[in-house]
């Protein structure tokens, strides 16, 4: 955590990757705003009470959290995957805000052979020490991309020959149906714990699937649901091999 106007300015100038940048609602600082724009860091306007909860020190109305991982470009990940002769297997997380859920998802994704996790620039869990611990270190071994518009990301992947499938309870297609094919280049989309995948992304993807729920409870924890879907991909690819 870095706080105070000059400290935050120097952190932005240093080129370090910023996970979160919080600024008091009424504060205006052209230097921070310009540097944030140049570094493609989203400024989140918050009440001073939130900043006070983050630190009791004199934060001067601005606090930033330096990323615990190095974000990479999705285009570079795709190029590396093709260069290694691998079939693309990506995971897009739409507004997963719980740090421990994110860490658990990262751990499962790495174990399942996912090459990259893609998160939005705003509205995602901070990748901090808690996320790293919950992932059991998996975040050290899997690429993480931060994209500012996941709809644009979906379109980029589709143009790259990747099928994008959203897992949502709104789907009429069962994950285990014979018509559900998950063998080729693939990106799975999982959504927010509160309201699932955003409508814009649901409209943009190629297909939707749902996990069958046979009990009385209407949903699974997102990290559990992600594990179910990813290992169905692993199963289908093993049968194809």
Descriptive report:
The protein has 241 residues and is α/β, with parallel strands linked by helices. It is built from nine helices and ten strands. The chain has helices spanning 5-13, 30-38, 48-54, 74-83, 99-112, 129-134, 150-159, 199-204, 222-240; strands at 2-3, 18-24, 43-46, 62-66, 89-93, 116-120, 143-147, 163-167, 186-190, 207-209. Strands 7-6-5-9-8-10 form a six-stranded parallel beta sheet, sandwiched between helices. A four-stranded mixed beta sheet has the order 1-4-2-3. Strand 5, helix 5 and strand 6 form a beta-alpha-beta unit. Helix 1 packs parallel to helix 2 (30-38) and helix 5 runs parallel beside helix 9 (222-240). The termini are far apart. 34% of the residues are buried. The mean pLDDT is 92. This is 23S rRNA (Guanosine(2251)-2'-O)-methyltransferase RlmB. Residues 1-72 form the RNA 2-O ribose methyltransferase substrate binding domain. Keywords: Methyltransferase, Transferase. InterPro entries: Alpha/beta_knot_MTases, Ribosomal_eL30-like_sf, rRNA_MeTrfase_TrmH, SpoU_MeTrfase, SpoU_subst-bd, tRNA_m1G_MTases_N. It comes from Fibrella forsythiae.
What is the share of helical residues?
25-40%
- The number of distinct helices, counting runs of at least 4 residues, comes to 9
Give the distance, in angstroms, between the N- and C-terminal Cα atoms.
46 Å
* Number of DSSP strand runs: 10
Estimated radius of gyration? 19 Å
